[in-house]
Amino acid sequence: MPNSAPDYNQARKNMVDCQIHTSGVVHIGLLNAFENVPRELFVPETLKGIAYYDEEIALGKGRFLLEPLTLSKMLQAADLKESDVALDIGGATGYGAAILSPNVTTIIAIENNDDLIAGAEKNWNDLGANNIVPIKARLTTGAPDKGPFDVIIMHGAVPEIPTNITAQLAPHGRLLCIVKHPGEKIGHATLVQSLGENQFSSYTLFECASGYIDGFAPKPTFSF
After folding, report:
1. Which of 16, 145, 178, 214 sits most deeply, having the most CB atoms within 10 A of its CB?
2. Dihedral through CA 110, CA 115, CA 121, CA 127, nearest 10?
3. How many Å is the Cα radius of gyration of the chain?
4. What pLDDT, on a 0 to 100 scale, did the predictor assign at position 1?
5. Which of 133, 126, 72, 134 is nearest to 105 (CA)?
6. Are 201 and 222 a contacting pair, CB within 8 Å?
7. Rounded CA gap, 169 and 195, in Å?
8. What does each C-alpha distance from 218 to 100, 145, 214, 223 come to in angstroms?
9. Can you give 130-161 as a three-state secondary structure string?
10. What is the mean pLDDT of each run of 10 residues along the chain (224 residues)?
11. Cα(174)–Cα(47) distance, integer angstroms
12. Tell me, what's the pLDDT at 6?
């Protein structure tokens, strides 16, 4: 007998019930988004079978989707509000922005790859996520001319908190990133909050594994 088609709807429900909700994510808008946004649309055909595994999914050319658990806990810490304007950095095929879409008013999605932007736009259009504005730009630059932002989410690791990105936060804005110092294998999901007047506070949230965002990998050092 031929194998039955995967039940992605059930897989999404299991992801929320068994991975995300049980980890302490209680924001109802996030839970609904993770249950309704089809993650399998955002991965290559050959990887659809692992779309709902709790692991980072490599998309090729050094790009990836964060683990669902990592992404959900970071967004929970962002304390999302419907009035928020968000900056999404390095979201690749656009899954993170699709999760944000029903929970904020506007998203500026920064990508540096034409193919990724085109694929993400198709996915968003198919889902009716019409509050996402894709912009091609260097990921290390952000979108200073489009800010300030209430929320900034960076989809991957950085060697240190990027001050040029935190400068794009509105007063009381929140930035979520994964800080992985050079040489470390495990990073730390980190919340940076703007206190106004160019003052910031930062908090370590939890340990997690992630590759570096394109352009943010530390330069190799040489010893003699």
Report:
1. 178
2. -120
3. 17
4. 40
5. 133
6. no
7. 10
8. 29, 26, 11, 15
9. CCEEEEECCCCCCCCCCCCEEEEEEEEEECCC
10. 71 94 95 96 92 88 91 96 97 97 98 94 96 96 96 97 96 97 94 90 95 89 54
11. 32
12. 78
The per-residue pLDDT for 33 is 97
- Three-state SS for the chain is CCCCCCCHHHHHHHHHHHHHHHHCCCCHHHHHHHHHCCHHHHCCHHHHHHCCCCCCEEEECCEEECCHHHHHHHHHHCCCCCCCEEEEECCCCCHHHHHHHHHCCEEEEEECCHHHHHHHHHHHHHHCCCCEEEEECCCCCCCCCCCCEEEEEEEEEECCCCHHHHCCEEEEEEEEEEECCCCCCCEEEEEEEEEECCEEEEEEEEEECCCECCCCCCCCCCCC
CB 199 within 8 A of CB 142: no
Q: How many CB atoms lie within 10 A of CB 36?
A: 14
Instruction: Identify the CATH homologous superfamily for domain 8-208.
Output: Vaccinia Virus protein VP39 (3.40.50.150)
Taking the C-alpha atoms of residue 114 and residue 137, their distance in angstroms, rounded to an integer, is 10
pTM: 0.93
Give residue 31's pLDDT: 97
Q: With CA atoms as reference, report the closest residue to 95 among 71, 130, 73.
A: 71
Can you name the residues that pair with 193 across neighbouring β-strands? 174, 201
Report how far residue 133's alpha carbon sits from residue 171's, in angstroms, rounded to the nearest whole number: 22
For the record, the structure tokens of 133 come out as: 């504005």
What residues does each domain of the chain span? 8-208
Residue type at 6 in one-letter notation:
P
